[in-house]
Amino acid sequence: MTRYFDDVKVGDELPEVVQKVTIPVMQRWVASAETLRRDHYDPKFAIEFDGLPNAVMSGSFSQAYLWQLLFNWAGPDGWVFKAYQKNAMMVHPGNTITFFGAVTNKEEKNGLGYVELDLGLRREDGVVAVPGTATVVLPLRGGRKVPYPFVREPEASDA
User: Fold this and answer.
1) Other CB atoms closer than 10 Å to residue 108's CB: what's the count?
2) pLDDT digits (tens, 9 = 90+) for 2-28
3) What top-level branch of life does the organism fall under (predicted)?
4) What are residue 93's phi and psi, to 5 degrees?
5) Which domain range does residue 32 map to?
6) Residue 99 DSSP symbol
7) Cβ contact 117:135 at 8 Å
8) How many CB atoms are closer than 10 A to CB 152?
């Protein structure tokens, strides 16, 4: 389904994704991503050798989930232009995390719709452990398609 810029409103929320963080989930992630740092799946190692309170979720895990949240929301005709995240707080096994996002601004440029979003990962205690922002480009209803691959077109102010 195409998501059109015209149908998006500031304040719209992206569908949230909830994930229970467990050691098996963490082990599968680091194995599939080939980031086999023991502090990402071995609590005893993380505590005894790294001085951490527990094993810690990989930053690339949260990045992948946030990008998937954006891809799903943008749909097949949109483009995730850029995204930023900061791994600000640790996430440990036993946490239940929620990936979220909301539209903060929208602007039409060069016949395309640019949508700004705040997004992140929130722990069950309400702490946003991974805050971020993103820009998604969407087509206008009745307008041109978002080019693939998308490259920001120069604006008059860029000259």
Assistant:
1) 12
2) 999 999 999 999 999 999 999 999 998
3) Bacteria
4) -60, 140
5) 5-147
6) E
7) yes
8) 14
Predicted pLDDT at 159: 54
The domain tally of the chain equals 1
Of 85, 93, 158, 159, the closest CA to residue 128 belongs to 85
The answer as to whether 156 is a domain residue is no
Question: Is 53 contained in some domain?
Answer: yes
Sheet holding 17-20, edge to edge: 17-20, 96-109, 112-123, 128-138, 79-85
Question: 133 vs 155, which has greater pLDDT?
Answer: 133
Shortest CA distance to 27 belongs to which of 36, 15, 14, 16?
36
Is 157 among the domain residues?
no
Q: What is the pTM of this model?
A: 0.89
- Retrieve residue 6's tokens: 């015209």
Q: Which helix (H) or strand (E) holds 25?
A: helix 23-33
Structure tokens at 139: 């087509």
Which parts of 34-111 are beta strand (E)?
79-85, 96-109
Burial 21-40 (b: 16+ CB within 10 A, else e): beeeebeebbeeeeeeeebb
Residue of 7, 19, 109 lying closest to 64 (CA atoms): 19
